[in-house]
Amino acid sequence: MRNPLNKKIVNIEPSGIRKFFDIVNDMPDAISLGVGEPDFDTPYNVREEGIYALEKGRTFYTSNAGLKELRVEITKYIDRKYDLHYDPMKEVMVTVGGSEAIDVALRCMCDPGDEVLIPQPSYVSYIPCAVMADAVPVPIELKVENKFKLTPEELEEHITDKTKVLILPFPNNPTGAIMTKEELEALVPIILKYDLMVITDEIYSELTYGRSHYSFAAIPGMKERTVMINGFSKAFAMTGWRLGYACAPEIIMKQMIKLHQFAIMCAPTNSQFAAVEALRNCDDDVKRMTEAYNQRRRFLLNAFKEMGIDCFDAEGAFYVFPSIKKFGLTSDEFATKLLMEQKLAVVPGTAFGASGEGYVRISYAYSIESLKEGLSRIKKFIDSL
Amino acid sequence: MREEILNILEKNSRIDIKDMAVMLGTTEIEVANTIADMEKEHIICGYNTIIDWDKTSEEKVTALIEVKVTPQRGLGFDSIAQRIYQFDEITSCYLMSGGFDFTVIIEGKTMKSVAQFVANKLAPLDSVLSTSTHFVLKKYKDYGKVLDAPVKDERMLVTP
User: Fold this and answer.
1) For residue range A37-75, what is the model confidence (pLDDT) as tens digits?
2) Which of A263, A367, B22, B30 is the most buried (most CB within 10 A)?
């Protein structure tokens, strides 16, 4: 039989998390601080709206771009948060999670050979999505001394005449880094100088501590060259509903909707009805969850400090990214040994790019009690090293 | 900070002060003082435990009683409420809007003892016009806690 497979796809490396996932799955008594989704249930009023939509028999397709009602709510929400205005009829699309939006945006913007700048450590799908779009992914290694933020110098160093797109993944998974208005503005001259397009992955936008998230597209002149991606998974604890969205200038959005139309048709209708409720009536729930995350964040940062483990002060998402360099193990060895000896799963930093070497990702999407148990196992483990 | 402390305590009043100080980014002394102040000011009125008595061998019944009264001139409902809520059997007493005046929640050993209390103590009070007693058959949720729901984390152990 002939080779049934496409070489480009075969050559994409499977996620480093996948390998870890398989080991953990064979250990039924393992506990984990390795989850990348909220521990909260979706607020009940949102779930109830989903149930009601089912009861009413709302099981049809929506328009390709998504329920009009939801698109209007999305634009109102963005307006309210960032004073940033999108046309719900022409510049918004509801997607199957933020992940689909990343994939679709890159496919729509890249020609073969175009280079996509990807700050790392960052979420696992940017590189494969760039490859699938026939683009060339170019990682930018972020540094702890810059608090894992992207500096204008680092950006400019990686630009060639092929560079087309910059991905801005902040608040960041796995580091918890955020970028402030001023730090984003510092990138603008470079972006203009080299005429770059920008994709912002703002899925953790609600989860920042001490200051509100600032959206890159809100900088004057940047909306025209930005695809803003966000979703419901993290802010509203709705991961399994698979619902995200993208906002972009009409010229880009038109092509994105076309791709989405042929590949996906439309995002799940039931989830879309529930999401309308989430945007309308969940401010208090989001506040409550954010408050709890912040308490856990402080708890973890303090615990690592007491253990003498370096951990920079993550201000967003629900991860901390402690350094394990001083133990003389690679991230992978550290995480594997910790799992084997203490039955605690954490994610090696290298799963998020080579620059994650020397770090592990600890999630605080867990109750304080679970965090305590996890921390006591980490303590036992490092004492034994 | 007061509000955040109250939110934490409302869910778990047994939390370690040290943990709470870390969670709030402040000192133990600050937390302890704030709590002490709120106790003094009667913002924090006490610390109770949520118990599912059905799982013990103890016999307990709970009843919710709708009470209609005649308010007293110049005193409104407060003085009659005071006459009612001082009985030890009564765990809660609320002034209500709508078709009746007070909701009184009462705990007793048996239905008979509750019925006797209503007949002998509550109903005969001067201002009480009528009572209507509803016995609780099963408690599903109390003080924000679902009583018979073991919490299980069903998420996959590792996700990106």
Assistant:
1) 999 999 999 999 999 999 999 999 999 999 999 999 999
2) B22
Q: Among B7, B24, B158, whose Cβ lies nearest the Cβ of A17?
A: B158
- Number of neighbouring beta carbons within 10 Å of residue A361: 28
Report how far residue A217's alpha carbon sits from residue A316's, in angstroms, rounded to the nearest whole number: 19
Q: Please state which of the ranges A15-29, A262-276, B14-28, B84-98 shows the lowest mean pLDDT.
A: A15-29
Query: Is A7-42+284-383's fold the same as A46-281's?
Result: no
Range of the domain at B106: 53-137
- SS3 at position A168: strand
Confirm or reject contact between A240 and chain B (CB < 8 A): no
Selection from A75, A72, A76 nearest residue A63 by Cα: A72
Residue of B nearest to A239 (CA): B155
Contact between residue A77 and residue A279 where contact means Cβ atoms under 8 Å apart: yes
Domain CATH number, residue B119: 3.30.70.920
User: What's the rounded Cα separation, in Å, for the pair A249 and A91?
Assistant: 6
Q: From the CA of A19, how many Å to the nearest CA of chain B?
A: 10
Confirm if A33 and A322 have CB atoms less than 8 A apart.
no
Global confidence as pTM: 0.91
Task: Please report the beta strands in chain A, taking only residues with DSSP state E, as ranges in sequence order.
Answer: 31-32, 92-95, 115-120, 136-141, 163-168, 197-201, 226-231, 244-247, 319-320, 344-345, 347-348, 360-363
- In this structure, are residues B118 and B61 in contact, taking their beta carbons and an 8 Å threshold? no
Q: Which pair of tokens denotes residue B37? A: 């102040």
Q: What is the 3-state secondary structure (H, E, C) of chain B?
A: CHHHHHHHHHHCCCCCHHHHHHHHCCCHHHHHHHHHHHHHCCCCCCCCCCCCHHHCCCCCEEEEEEEEECCECCCECHHHHHHHHCCCCEEEEEECCCCCCEEEEEEECCHHHHHHHHHHHHCCCCCEEEEEEEECCCCCEECCEECCCCCCCCCCCECC
Residues in chain A closer than 8 A to B23 (CB atoms)? 295-296, 298-299, 368
Average pLDDT over residues A325-353: 95
Distance, in Å, from the CA atom of A249 to the CA atom of A253, rounded to the nearest integer, reads 6
Assess if CATH 1.10.3720.10 describes domain A46-281: no
Fold classification of A7-42+284-383 is Aspartate Aminotransferase, domain 1 (3.90.1150)
Name the pairing type of β-strands A136-141 and A115-120.
Answer: parallel
